[in-house]
Design brief:
CATH superfamily: Umud Fragment, subunit A
Helix content: 10-25%
Number of strands: 15
CATH class: Mainly Beta
CATH architecture: Ribbon
Strand content: 35-45%
Largest sheet: 8 strands, antiparallel
Radius of gyration: 21 Å
Shape: globular
CATH topology: Umud Fragment, subunit A
Number of domains: 1
Oligomer: single chain
């Protein structure tokens, strides 16, 4: 059987167009992300796969694969809201993706005093909801934490946890520069975030990638590989499918 060379050309064209469409969707509309760490527990778990909307804050070079220097600044820009869960490129290398909660806006001051979070010299209200729950912290399992419901000045409410054996007590006052943001992990004592200026620090608005919206799949590889379908009842977290991120 003789194949027409047009057959191969047509299929190459189809693959090329499909690739272009996939890149456009990923760059302009939605991008999937995988949660590899416990820094946002209990709201985001290791193994969660979520969608981030790229259009929420406009577009910068970091909206596109490999961050090509095709333009400076942001276009169609809109400001994130305090309390948003945001994916951003770390300022240290402008390459690594982090996901944290936005706490401080440009011009704000942030400080920890005796383990309490202060925003612009006002303590952030937090209400204890449970005692001595167990979560992950890095590679450690069953770390005891107290769980709190935290409320920001704009009314945003979310869950945070603090370790019972030790916690981040005191800090200098962080003054957030113009066009920068301050992020914290919800797992407060197990998060590398804006408190650590040499590794994350203040995040420039151009480094924002998008807003985390919902989880579309979740599995715990630590129990068993996803290919072991006979253990799906243990590894796949069906209740987290299509869960909206608050």
């Amino acid at each position: 059987m003789k194949l027409n060379k047009n057959f191969f050309i047509d299929n190459l064209k189809t693959l090329f167009y499909a690739l272009i469409i996939a890149i456009l969707i990923r760059s302009i509309l939605l991008q999937p992300f995988y949660i590899p760490s416990s820094s946002m527990e209990p709201n985001l778990l290791i193994g969660d796969r979520l969608f981030v909307t790229k259009y929420s804050y406009g577009y910068s070079k970091h909206s596109f694969p490999f961050s090509p220097p095709i333009f400076n600044g942001r276009i169609f820009s809109s400001n994130p809201e305090r309390g948003d869960v945001v994916v951003f490129k770390t300022p240290v290398d402008n390459r690594t993706d982090y996901i944290k909660r936005l706490i401080g806006l440009p011009g704000d001051s942030i400080q920890f005093i005796d383990g309490h979070l202060y925003l612009n010299n006002n303590e952030i209200l937090k209400t204890k909801t449970s005692l001595k729950e167990k979560i992950y912290c890095g590679g450690k399992k069953n770390v005891e934490v107290n769980t709190f419901e935290e409320k920001l000045p704009n009314g945003k409410i979310y869950t945070t946890v603090y370790r019972t054996d030790f916690t981040f007590k005191n800090s200098d006052k962080f003054i957030i520069p113009k066009n920068h943001y301050f992020f914290l992990g919800d797992n407060r004592d197990c998060s590398k975030d804006s408190r650590y200026l040499t590794s994350v620090g203040y995040v420039h608005k151009d480094n924002l990638v998008g807003k985390a919206q919902f989880i579309f799949f979740s599995s715990d590889y630590r129990i068993a590989s996803i290919i072991k379908f006979w253990k799906w009842d243990e590894t796949i977290r069906f209740k987290r499918f299509f869960k909206r991120i608050k």
